[in-house]
Amino acid sequence: KKTAKVDGWDTQVYEASTTLQATRHWMVNTKYNVKGNFAGYLGAADSLVHSLDTRTSISPGAQPSKDIEKDGKAEKPTKMTAQVWLARDFPLQMAELLPMLELLGKHHPKWGKVEKHMRQFVDDGTFPIKTQIPIMWTVKALMTIKSVQRGEACTADLPNDYFDTPSDYRVVSAEEKHQANRRA
Fold it and tell me: Picking from 21-35, 85-99, 119-133, 153-167, which range would have the lowest pLDDT averaged per residue?
């Protein structure tokens, strides 16, 4: 296992990798309405072939393909790696982070995968104090927790209706809000 020291904490480093392969897609830039005879159709088809455009897109986990070329050379798949540094005996525990990841995962499938992956570390007493996630081929997001201070739990007795929605609150559709903003 790979280990590293992060801000005084001994950590274990975990990695997850995938490869990305560029693929070519043919796109038509123009629409043709052909009315008339077969010769007119062939003329339009000839123009259509000259207007085809190739675009490159990226798909995760694709297998390398020898027929995809760029400037006469076969393109190689690019490996992208995410890393997480887990510290033992950190003031926060993984179980405290999971509800937030679970909430994010309900709205964003990729966060759901992160939550599912991090769930395996709940019982070993670790916490992710540093993460590095690839955003694009050359850009990575890096998050490091520098310090943690726990506040005291709120022991005040709150009224039962403290989190209730006010009675004068009403639900407004996006269209109504847009119209109200135009009038203002």
Answer: 21-35
C-alpha distances in angstroms, 9 versus 1, 51, 120, 142? Answer: 16, 59, 21, 17
- pLDDT given for residue 53 in this prediction: 44
Closest to 88 in 3D by CA, of 9, 173, 181? 9
- Look up the pTM and report it: 0.53
Alpha helix stretches (DSSP H) within 77-135: 94-107, 109-118
Q: Is the pLDDT of residue 169 over 60?
A: yes
- How is the chain split among helix, strand and coil, in percent rounded to 5? 30, 35, 35
Q: Kindly give, in sequence order, each residue whose CB lies less than 8 Å from that of residue 24, ignoring residues fewer than 6 positions away.
A: 54, 55, 56, 68
- 90: number of Cβ within 10 Å: 17
User: Quick one: tokens of 121?
Assistant: 């570390």
Measured CA to CA, the distance from residue 5 to residue 13 in angstroms comes to: 10
In this model, does residue 64 exceed pLDDT 50? no
Backbone φ and ψ for 123, nearest 5 degrees, come out as: -85, -10
Length of the chain: 184
